[in-house]
Design a protein that fits this description.
The complex is a heterodimer of chains A (486) and B (227).
Chain A lengths: L18 H9 L2 H24 L3 H17 L1 H14 L3 E5 L2 H14 L4 E4 L3 H5 L2 H7 L3 E4 L2 H9 L15 H11 L9 H18 L2 E4 L3 E3 L4 E6 L3 H7 L3 E7 L3 E2 L5 H12 L7 E6 L9 E7 L3 H5 L15 H5 L1 H6 L10 H11 L17 H5 L6 H18 L7 H13 L2 H16 L7 E2 L7 H4 L4 E2 L6 H12 L1
Parallel strand pairs in A: 1-10, 2-3, 2-4, 4-7, 5-8, 7-10
Antiparallel strand pairs in A: 5-6, 6-9, 11-12
Helix pairs in contact in A: 3-12, 9-10, 16-18
Chain B lengths: L4 H14 L7 H9 L13 H14 L3 E5 L4 H12 L3 E4 L5 H10 L4 E4 L6 H7 L2 E5 L2 E3 L4 E4 L16 E7 L3 E2 L2 H6 L7 E5 L4 E2 L7 E2 L6 E7 L3
Parallel strand pairs in B: 1-12, 2-3, 2-4, 4-7, 5-8, 7-12
Antiparallel strand pairs in B: 5-6, 6-9, 10-11
Helix pairs in contact in B: 4-5
The chains are: A alpha/beta (486), B alpha/beta (227).
Chain lengths: 486, 227
């Protein structure tokens, strides 16, 4: 990842810059902000209409939240049940403790098939384990088949959203990428024409490549069913034409029974794309003779999930069904887009998921990439209290920092300790107010605002103005008011 | 195949250690499951007539073409639709009623039917075909969804995917109002299922909805008024 273009940041949390630094790069890119803003406006308007129309929306959210919590409480039982049913239906189940093991299992399966090419359905889990670059390095050509993923792959771009990963790229940029890589000189920027170009580009791949990789939206323990939800039909192509299918799935994706899909499917599309339901949903268990892949493998991926499960407040992170409603509604994401989060999981869910999946030291700044406004919690179809988890993670960051050597003399910690002493008494607090009013008067402009402060104070005024202190405090005003009344 | 037993054990062990409140046995698990809140709408409240109307409205919102007919007129209606499509090479699943194919082949010059018997050789015929005709298992009015369980009259999964034109026969008596109503009919659950809600679509470029990326670009539904 050392060959990054200017204006681009790594999506590997180990190499990505801290959020404020990366966000600044994105904020200085007006084209990116315009593209992201437009896409978010369209999705939000559609979602809003369809959620209002659903009179039982809150009941669905409650049911979904309860189902997901119940699964997490009983995860080992449901995973084992899924494994048993999937094997009984002719599938194979593999368990991967971490990303490296998952990559190796998949490569070994591809080697058994002598596969030199593989077609892929969009899957966040494979992005999480950086599967594509690993397979390419091992000599396997990887072809993404989702339109947005093709745009990213051909344009050597990074995903910036978990549902519409190319939303930061506009039509003329797509035209440029396709014209260059597909050698189509006369291509226009009409989305219909661009979509057709992708259809033609992929058709031969679908019909000839015998091996496919997918993720899964849900696993069903009761039946060993795997569910893939999509719009374009590239998923159905990958699921039905190849001889071998490998599905890489996080261990938390399981649902107890087939019927539970009735809750999830009603919530997912409305939350994700603002549709009543997505155009195509595919469900299959194991192998069906004469229909679809005859070799079917599920790779169950832990990669840090079981350690999240062990923590009381953080556990709810694993309820996530990857709908992206939280990033669509987030005022921070709207301004920065996804790349600033330095992870394949951006937005509010990324801000809590990334630090937990990776070691915290690689994503220290993410729990602070939020104004804690709570909009993400309000829209979340499975009721993940993201602000609560953000606060929990922030306290962990602080505790960790406090233990670091030299922290005792750090200006901020020193200042906070002194403030703690001063504000502990009423007279100390009042004295500080008086001194502050005198000191700040020097910096307060005629409009009543402080536009620039020196030294540490500049950290605040660099990005926003500060209201000057009023002539009197509330206490003083109150005391005078009582006097006048008398 | 040799399973990486150690990782399986390691993952399950750490999950068990993380979930001390997990149900002790299957009956306790079933009890906890039965207690989950389900206050959402199960059965719909529309009349049979309104239910069918809603299904048709939703399908039209997805730009699908919808035609209605009586059971007696079905073969003729299929023929009329195939003629209007301007296409001549069609595939159908093995359970397709002979009458549909005979009527249309007799009335439309140059019309050819291929039955998909599930053989590898049939695959080229499916890709070559200009259209496909099948029945369905269920229609869900609330979301305008066509449900296929891939029975003998619905065909294997790729049959309704590769051709550019898809004519689907849905009986009014198969239409339910809500998704939960459909799921309550899934006893036992199917091994294979595909839910189709409108023609394939994408909005990946500037959120502009484009019909027909990989699946059929044209979806025509004949609603048979059998109730």
């Amino acid at each position: 990842m050392s060959h990054l273009r200017p204006g681009r940041v790594s999506l590997d949390p180990r190499f990505a810059p801290p959020f404020p630094e990366a966000a600044l790069i994105m904020l200085r890119n007006p084209q990116l902000r315009k593209n992201v803003g437009h896409a978010i406006d369209v999705i939000q308007a559609k979602r809003g209409k369809l959620v209002v129309e659903k009179t039982d929306w809150q009941a669905l959210r409650s049911a979904a939240s309860a189902i997901r919590f119940h699964v997490l409480d009983n995860l080992s039982a449901y995973l084992e049940q899924f494994e048993t049913r999937c094997i009984a239906a002719g599938g194979h189940v593999h368990w991967a403790a971490d990303a490296a093991e998952a990559r190796q299992i998949i490569l070994d399966l591809l080697r058994q098939e002598n596969a030199t090419e593989v077609i892929k359905i969009k899957t966040m889990t494979s992005a999480e384990i950086q599967l594509n670059s690993f397979l390419q390095a091992a000599g396997v050509s990887v072809y993404e088949t989702d339109l947005a993923e093709i745009i990213l792959q051909l344009g050597d771009e990074d995903p910036s959203h978990i549902v519409v990963p190319a939303l930061h790229i506009n039509r003329s940029q797509v035209r440029e990428i396709f014209a260059r890589t597909m050698n189509l000189k006369n291509l226009t920027d009409d989305p219909k024409e661009l979509t057709n170009a992708a259809r033609t580009y992929l058709r031969q791949k679908f019909l000839t490549v015998p091996t496919a990789i997918s993720g899964a939206n849900f696993l069903v323990a009761e039946t060993g069913t795997v569910a893939v939800v999509e719009s374009e039909g590239n998923g159905r192509m990958c699921l039905t034409l190849p001889q071998t299918m490998i599905s890489l799935v996080g261990i938390e994706k399981v649902l107890p029974r087939f019927q539970d899909l009735e809750v999830m499917l009603q919530l997912l599309a409305r939350s994700a794309t603002g549709e009543r339901i997505n155009p195509y949903t595919s469900l299959w268990s194991g192998v069906t003779p004469g229909d679809g892949p005859q070799n079917f493998h599920v790779v169950l991926l832990d990669n840090g999930r079981s350690s999240i499960l062990a923590k009381t407040k953080e556990r709810q992170t694993l309820k996530c069904i990857r709908c992206a409603a939280c990033m669509n509604t987030c005022p921070v994401y709207r301004q920065t887009g996804g790349h600033a989060y330095g992870s394949v999981y951006p937005g509010p869910i990324g801000a809590i998921l990334t630090p937990q999946l990776m070691q915290m030291k690689h994503a220290q700044s993410l729990p602070y990439a939020s104004s804690l406004c709570g909009a993400c919690y309000e829209v979340c179809p499975v009721k993940i209290n993201i602000p609560e988890v953000l606060l929990e993670l922030r306290s962990q960051v602080v505790n960790q920092e406090r233990k670091q050597a030299g922290r005792f003399f750090d200006l901020m910690y020193l200042g906070l300790r002194i403030a703690n002493l001063i504000f502990a008494t009423a007279w100390g607090f009042h004295a500080a107010q008086r001194i502050g009013r005198i000191g700040l008067r020097f910096f307060t402009r005629k409009d009543g605002w402080i536009h620039a402060l020196p030294s540490l104070g500049a950290k605040w005024t660099q990005t926003r103005d500060l209201r000057g202190l009023p002539k009197q405090t509330f206490h003083q005003w109150w005391a005078e008011r009582v006097k006048v009344k008398k | 195949m040799k399973q990486p037993v150690t990782s399986r054990q390691q993952i399950l062990d750490s999950i068990r250690a993380a979930t001390p409140t997990a149900a002790k046995d299957a009956s306790q698990l079933a009890e906890a499951y039965a207690d989950l809140p389900r206050a959402y709408v199960g059965h719909g409240s529309l009349s049979a007539q309104a239910r069918v109307e809603l299904m048709i409205q939703r399908l039209r919102e997805y730009d699908a073409e919808v035609v209605e007919c009586t059971p007696a007129k079905l073969a003729d209606t299929i023929t009329a639709q195939l003629a209007a499509s301007g296409r001549h090479l069609f595939v159908a699943p093995p359970g397709t009623p002979n009458e549909w194919m005979v009527t249309s082949a007799w009335k439309i010059t140059g019309l050819e039917w291929t039955i998909d018997h599930g053989l590898p050789i049939d695959e080229h015929e499916i890709e070559r075909a200009e259209g496909v005709v099948t029945s369905a298992t269920c229609g869900i009015a609330d979301s305008g969804t066509i449900v296929l369980h891939h029975t003998a009259t619905e065909g294997r999964r790729k049959l309704t995917l590769l051709p550019d034109y898809y004519l689907c026969i849905l009986r009014a008596s198969q239409i339910v109002e809500t998704l939960p109503e459909y799921f309550s009919r899934c006893q036992p659950p199917p091994a294979l299922a595909t839910y189709i809600s409108g023609p394939s679509a994408t909005a990946d470029i500037e959120m502009t909805r484009i019909k027909g990326v990989h699946g059929p670009r044209i979806l025509v539904v004949i609603v048979v008024r059998d109730n």
